[in-house]
Each structure stands twice: as structure tokens, then as C-alpha cells.
Amino acid sequence: VSTQSTGSNQTITEQHRQQLTNLRLEIEHKKDKEKTFELEKLRLEKDKIIQDLERNMKLDRGQLEETIEKIADDNAKKIANLSLSEAKVQELSASLEEYKELLKMAQMESERDLKNVKTRAAEELTALRETYTKQLEEATANRATTSTTESAASDQEMEGVEGVNLTERVRQLEADNKDLRALKARCMEIAVTQFQRGDHVMFYYDESKCNYLVANVCATEYQYFLHPDNLGALGLSLEGPSRKPWAIGVIKDKEFCQARKQNNRFKVPEGRKFYRVYAQQRPSASSTSASTAATAGEDNS
Fold first, then answer.
1. How far is residue 175's CA from residue 217's CA, in Å, rounded to a whole number?
2. Cβ neighbour number for residue 225 with a 10 Å cutoff
3. Contact 250, 279 (CB under 8 A)
4. Long-range CB pairs of 85-88, under 8 A, 24+ apart, other chains included
5. 143, burial (CB in 10 Å: exposed 0-12, middle 13-18, buried 19+)
6. Which of 92, 126, 138, 208 is deepest in the core (most CB within 10 A)?
7. pLDDT tens digit string along 169-179?
8. Are the C-beta atoms of residues 226 and 274 closer than 8 Å to each other?
9. Parallel, antiparallel, or unpaired: how do β-strands 224-226 and 273-280 relate?
């Protein structure tokens, strides 16, 4: 009986051991499955994070490329504007030099014409004096052969006519001299810096500003823009055939301004200070001559 009991116990023990072994294997298998599942979950999460990072990197790279391209375009535009501005400055400098040369030539021509007029006036005055003297001598000779009354009347009449003609001719020559002096003054009166009301100035069209500016030889001064509402007074326009490269005018008034926003009609940076001017056409040479002749007539009268 004891032997059977011992064998039964051993069998039970072996069964228990086998069950424990199976249970341990099952637990280890479950643990391995859970580890595999967690590892797979971690792998998927890692792949998702990597994909998100790659997508974000692509987006950031694209934005960075766009930003770089935009900055490059802006720099290219700035360089182009600087090149255009430099070309405009050179063109304006050349125009100013050409205008100075024209003024110099006009001054020389005016001085030469004035000298010629003075010479011609002196010659004509001499000729008039000689003619008057000759006619006076002839009148004296005729007076010797005619009656005293007729000679006296004829002499007085001749002297009166010749005196009037001589006076009129002198007045005409003086008026011509005043016209030439006025022309010379007009050629030398163009202001090129420190502009004030009443100054005669040259306006030029600036492509970068799309406006007319006053030609200024001093780069450190404020810019002077012709008011867009004042273009018609000078026969100018910002577009079409009336958009002339330059014009001469007289400053009537000026306004000190400051740009309040980036996009403005004068295309200046925000905060930039400048002047707006109103101008009118300067008097023409014919009107100057007419006014000079009128003044001479008033003076003679």
C-alpha cells in the first residue's frame, strides 16, 4: 500500500511539475507576445514620428527655399533699382552739364549780340548825325538863296522831323539793349539748389519715382516734387505724349511733407521728408520783350 501511495505521489508531483512548466511557458509566451506587440507599437510610433519629422522638414525646407528665393528676388530688385537710380543720376548729371553748357553758350551769344547791337547802334547814330549835319548844311545853303521867312520855316520843319526820327531811333536801340539784357538775365536765373518761391527751376521726369522732380545739384537736400495737381500748369503729364523729359517753371509755393505710409504716390520710404511745389510757366521771351518795351515807353513818356 505504501509503495502504491509513493508511486501515486510521484505521479502527481510529475503532473504538477509539468503543469507548472506549461504554465511558465505559457506565461513566457504571453510575455513575449506582449513584448512583441509593444515593440511593434513602438516601431509604428517611431515610424510615424519619423514621417512627421520628414514631412515637417520638407515643409520647412520648402518655406526656407521660398524665403531664400523671395530674399534673392528682393535683392535683385533693389540692385536693379540702385542701378536704375545710378543711371538716372548719371543721366541727370549729364543733362545738367549739357544745360550749363547751353546756358554758357546762351550767355556768350547774348553778350555777342549785345556787343553787335551796341556797335550797330553807334554806327547808326553816327550815320544819323552825319545825315543830320549834311541836311542841316544843305538847309543853310538853301536858306542863303531864299527868303528869310521861307528859310526859317523850312529849317525849323527839317530840324523838327530829323529830331523826331533821331529820338525814335535812339529809343528803339535802347529798347533792343534792354531786351538783350533781359534775355541774358533769363539765361542765368535758373536755380539749382536751396529753392525758394519765385525761383526759376528745371523739372525732370524720374522713372523710379514716376513723378517730376526739381533738378538739384546738392544730394544732401530734401527732394522737391512737382505736385501732381499742378502738372497742367506746365503742360506736363505723367503718361502719354505730354510726358516730357524736362521743363522749366517758376516756383509759386512749396509744402513740407512727410510720408505716412509705405505705398505713396511719390514712391518714397515711409517717414521720408520732402517738399511738394506748385509752379507756373516762366514768362516767354516775347512777353518779356513786350513788358520791357512798355516800361521803356513809359520811361520815355
1. 36
2. 25
3. yes
4. 85/208, 88/206, 88/207, 88/208
5. middle
6. 92
7. 767 776 766 66
8. no
9. parallel
Q: Considering only CA atoms, which of 148, 153, 140, 186 is closest in space to residue 286?
A: 186
User: C-alpha grid cell for residue 246?
Assistant: 524736362
For cell 509513493, what's the residue? 6
| pTM of the predicted model as reported, rounded to 2 decimal places | 0.39
Q: Who contacts 93 (Cβ-Cβ below 8 Å, separation ≥6)?
A: none
d(C-alpha 227, C-alpha 114), whole Å: 38
How far apart are the C-alpha atoms of 271 and 208, rounded to whole Å? 18
Residue 168's CB is within 10 A of a number of other CB atoms, namely 11
Calpha distance 143→152 (Å, rounded): 7
Distance CA 268, CA 164 (A): 65
- pLDDT of 35 reads 84
For residue 179, the tally of other CB atoms under 10 A from its CB is: 21
* Coil/strand/helix, residue 248: strand
